[in-house]
Each structure stands twice: as structure tokens, then as C-alpha cells.
Amino acid sequence: MTDPPTPPLTRREAIGLLAASAVAAGCTDEAGGEPTRGPTRPTPAVRMPVVFVPHGGGPWPFVEVGFGEKAEFDDLAGYLRSVPGLPKRPPKALLVVSAHWEAPVATVMTSPAPPMLYDYRGFPPASYRLTWPAPGDPALAARVRGLLGAAGIASAEDADRGFDHGTFVPLKLMWPEAEVPTVQLSLIRGLDPAAHLALGRALAPLRDEGVLIIGSGMTWHDLRAFGPRSYGVSEVFDAWLRESAALAPAERDRRLARWADAPAAREAHPREEHLLPLMVVAGAAGADRGALAWKGTFAGTVQSAYHFG
């Protein structure tokens, strides 16, 4: 005995069956009509590293500056050009702490199109025609102020400030197309190293938001003593710095907060504005230890760069 023939499905039944199959496969929208690619999971955040770089002097290497050696300039320029390859993903934006901006409180640039600030003098005319027209990022500037406020750190904003040479010179080497939105953040007048470590800690969440934090300074900066005669003493301080950056975070930060007790500290930095961007970077590094990324010379003095994370 054979089973009776199955009656054909009505159009409504056929649509219902297709919808049920698609839902079971996870590939329809809620209305059960059009197939989709199925449920997606948020892409996990990729934590950005944090970077301290030496920015050199004046408008080098784009203009003849009258000091230093081509070989050492080429070496530092080559390192700086390598920095964009460090993050696992291209950054959404850059936050730069330059040694060349101090303000009463931590201050961020808010212009959507920052101008150039040629904060050097005595160089050839071409030095004052350099451009690096990266867009600003007012939303990032607001986020920075929000994080600082949540940490109890006073802040302000500056809608007119332009990119100083601590930013545009190294970043012109790193991102010559000037396509990545960039915001500058000032140092805090008074130059307290502990305050700048705290500043970096407050900014650490930006690392999970696609923002690459860059400290731009120098590990030796005595304008009266650049040259080969200072090589030995600059190496003394740089050796201490290399050792300190690689320590466990608590000890690293303790030493950096008391950097002036280091061997040859005040010979290296009669005034510490060029070292403090490293404090901000170390604060933002959190549990990540520092690694020496580059070591060379600039105008005869030992300089070094550090990556964390």
C-alpha cells in the first residue's frame, strides 16, 4: 500500500518554510524576508602601542640646517619612516605630545584644519614654507578633555594653535601624505614628571580606540653642548634611560618620576621639557614594558626611541 501523494505547498507555507530554514541558519533579517550574511560579532579592539621618538632639530632633514652629519640624519629619518608599520592596524588618529608646547594646564588643539607653526628661527627661507596639512580631530580633542576631567586633571582647548616642529617634522617623515587626523596635546607648565605620568595614565583608554599616542622629544637636549664632545656623557644618561624604560611598570614609573637623580641627568636636560613626553608615553603604557626601538646619534649626542606595547 502506498502513501497518498503529498499535496503541494501553498505559497504562504513555502515562504514560511524558507524563512524558518534561514533563521535556523542565522542568515535572515528579523522580518524573515531577505537573506543576510548572518550574525556578526564586533571586531575586537586592537590595542595601539605608545611611542616616544626623538624629533631632531629644527626643520631637518627637509632643509640644510648647518649642523650634524648626513649619516646620522639618514639613520634617524629611516627609523621615523618605519613607525607607521608598528601598529597591527593603521591608527584612526594620532595624539602627539610635543616638547615644544607648554601651557598652564593640559591643552588640546581643536581646529579641524590646524595651521603650521614655525617655532624655530635662523634657518633658510625654505624652512618656513614646509607644509604638513593633516586634518585635526575635534571629536578626539573632546574625548581627551573628557578623559582628563574624569581623572581630575584640569584641561583647556586652543582653536588657533598650529602644528609645531616637534610634530610636523617627524610626522612629515612618518605620514608624508598627512592623511591621518592629528591632535596635539601640551605639556603642563611646571614640568612635574609625576603629573605627566598621571596625564598619560588618564589617556590610556585611547589605545583601545584606535588612537596612536606619540611623545616627541629628545633623550639629550642641551643646546649649548650638542656635538661629539658630549657623546660620552650623553651615553651615561641614555644607558640609565634604556634600563629604566624596560623595568616593570611600578619601578619604571618610580624612576622616571625621579629622573633628576639619574647619572648625568642635568647635563642631559638642563630643562626637562624634551624628556617629559616620555613620561606621558610611559603613563599611557600601563603594564606594557618599554623596548628600545632605535639608538643612534644626533649632532654627536646619543639619542634613543622607545616603544611600549
Describe the structure.
By secondary structure, the chain is of the alpha/beta class. It folds into 2 domains: 28 residues, no CATH class; 259 residues, LigB-like (Protocatechuate 4,5-dioxygenase, Chain B), CATH 3.40.830. It is 32% helix and 18% strand. The chain has 9 helices and 8 strands. The strands form 2 sheets. A 6-stranded mixed sheet has the order 5-2-6-1-8-7, with helices on both faces. The longest helix is centred in the N-terminal third of the chain and has 15 residues. The N terminus is likely disordered.
Topology:
Elements: H1 11-25, E1 50-54, H2 70-82, E2 93-103, E3 106-109, H3 138-150, E4 155-158, H4 165-174, E5 182-188, H5 193-203, E6 211-217, H6 231-245, H7 249-257, H8 265-268, H9 276-285, E7 290-298, E8 301-308
Parallel strand pairs: 1-6, 2-5, 2-6, 3-4
Antiparallel strand pairs: 1-8, 7-8
Helix pairs in contact: 2-4, 5-9, 7-9
Main traits of this protein?
Protocatechuate 4,5-dioxygenase, Chain B; 6-stranded mixed sheet; 9 helices; alpha/beta; two-stranded parallel sheet; disordered N terminus; 309 residues
